[in-house]
Design a protein that fits this description.
The structure holds two protein chains of two kinds. Chain A has one domain: TIM Barrel, CATH 3.20.20.70. Chain A has a nine-stranded parallel beta sheet with strand order 5-4-3-2-1-9-8-7-6. Chain A has twelve helices and nine strands. Chain A starts with a helix and ends with a helix. In chain A, about 55% of the residues are buried. By secondary structure, chain B is α/β, with parallel strands linked by helices. Chain B contains 16 helices and 14 strands. In chain B, strands 3-4-14-9-10-13 form a six-stranded mixed beta sheet, with helices on both faces. In chain B, strands 1-2-12-11 form a four-stranded antiparallel beta sheet. Chain B has a four-stranded parallel beta sheet with strand order 7-6-5-8, with helices on both faces. In chain B, strand 5, helix 5 and strand 6 form a beta-alpha-beta unit. Chain B is globular and about 55 Å long. The chains are: A alpha/beta, B alpha/beta. Bound molecules: pyridoxal-5'-phosphate (PLP). The site of pyridoxal-5'-phosphate has 21 residues of chain B, from helix 5, helix 11 and helix 15.
Chain lengths: ~270, ~425
Amino acid sequence: MSRLSKRFDDLKAEGRGGFIPFVTAYDPDINTFKKILAGLPEAGADVIEIGVPFTDPAADGPSIQAAGQRALKAGASLKGTLEIIRDFRKTNNETPIVLMGYFNPIYRMGCEKFANVAAEAGVDGLITVDLPPEEEEELRGPVQSAGLDIVRLIAPTTDDNRLPNVLKHASGFIYYVSIAGITGTTTPTIDSIELAAKRLRKHTKLPLAVGFGIRTPELANAVSRTADAAVVGSAVVERVAANLDANGNALPGLVDDVLHLVKSLSDGVRTRS
Amino acid sequence: MILKAVLTMSPEGVNSFRAGPDESGRFGLFGGRYVAETLMPLILEVEQAYHNARKDPEFLRLMDYYLAHYVGRPSPLYFAERLTAHLGGAKIYLKRDELNHTGSHKANNVLGQVLLAKRMGKTRIIAETGAGQHGVATATFCALFDIPCVVYMGATDVERQAPNVARMKLLGAEVRPVTSGSRTLKDAMNEGLRDWVAHVHDTYYVIGTAAGPHPYPEMVRDFQSVIGRETREQIIAAEGRLPDTLIACIGGGSNAIGLFHPFLDDQDVEMFGVEAAGRGVETGEHAAAIGGGKPGVLHGNRTYLLQDDDGQIAEAHSISAGLDYPGIGPEHSWLAQQGRVQYVNATDEEALEAFQTCARLEGIIPALEPAHALAFVLRWAGSQPKDKLVVMNMCGRGDKDVFAVAQHLGLPI
Ligand SMILES: Cc1ncc(COP(=O)(O)O)c(C=O)c1O
């Protein structure tokens, strides 16, 4: 059983939704990032989503754009990101890792090579933002043979006609983009998420994660009651940005502060009253 | 009549260079629809709407009407006698698309897309712009058709194309400077896509070149092909035969594909696309996607791109804001791979030289973009036989560049 399936099964057994923080690889520098990553499971991350920096992140809002730019300045690459994950796996074999990124770095590396290296490094799933099902074939084969899950994004604009096609090769979980917009800009209402969850559950038995506009422990909690997991990205990378000096270097308390935020969000998800 | 907005529906057989794209928007390996799921339903809607529109006589009638009475088509095909004598080789014609209303070929495309947006019931228009010509054309048609308009423009370009920024504002558009990334055209396009994702229901994105996700490369090409169709009739009227050579500059490739496309199946017509070599392709500071790039995926399509080994997009460099883009439309990537069109380039210096030569010899101040095509003509035409017929697309006028060029040349203004 894949790490992702096992984790969602365990969550179900525990009777709670999961919490998925998003962090950008190499943000703000490789060593600080490694420390954040290492601390995430302890801080309550049920799954970790790692953003692979790209020069032209057309689906991301200002916060994640800025994180990507910091990361690229710090020497980020897809290859380096996979190395970091390989290291992480030496001490953690349970927490699933999902890569979120854009297709060009993967294409440049070669789909087959990427799939094999990623699987071997300990990546569990893949979200490729600019690769809709219609364009996915060349990556799907290699990724499926390597045993990675293909996590599909579903948007408010994805209508019922389109849904079956979008869900066709999805595995691991599905990711509902809760706003028609870029990451971290507006906040969805819980009502709209409940409606969407109801609709999606009719079409799939896969676990459902929801993200793109969730910032507070309260909303994360509400979302995790309707869906199977809540994803928080912009709020987390903004916390990184808030702990930089004027030159963009990490201040001493950065790692603790970011993990503290993650802890409060995951506690929010775990609260059942 | 020359205008006739016949939007080609690939009637040619499989052996045609004009048959693409296929149903999934591909030209061979290139093209496609690499967009986020949020946009995908919208892209499919645009495709459907465009395919209906181009079969609708009323849509074609409106195109013809505004092209003739508002844009000022057909544009002349002018025998550049002094330039020809100066070079002493091939006979050079200029296709005068710089005489269009708004000053470039961009109007041909924007008219079509704004009419399409209206048909689709969209109430807000967005666009990206580099040199500002596409932004000005979009602002113009939005004024004419009374639709609110937002134009994204890299902060660097806002500075170097100041006259066009003022024009857009006068026309009632909102110009939003883009400070992310390299602050030029590619970043303006990212912002355009981001805006669109956030306003899917009421907004139409007018892309300014023959790139982006399907159906844009096809649609923009079809709208720009009026250039080549007119050229065909005009050169036959003037010379009694087809031209031997077509030459056009390449940013994303819309003016070039517009000139080339109606001739692609005429085997004897050779074609040169001129990319911007900036400070020289060998310096790495250039905008020659085919000359110095590799296939990759950006802005919705697979095409040649300037990029590093990690697949990060490289910053382009060109003195011309309209050519300062690290990619090229997918149909050009395919035509390059097929060997049907030859892609060459010209440096900043050569373009500046050509800019001045053209002004002095022909009394035409070209935009810096076609000055690159002209630079290739200056380098090449002298060695060609005198009976060779060449058509170069003079796709824009240089009013917008006058101050920047004067500054480069150290002229007091
Ligand atoms: C006058 C002119 N020519 C050419 C271009 C380049 O675009 P394309 O290659 O799509 O014709 C531009 C773009 O801004 C332009 O303004």
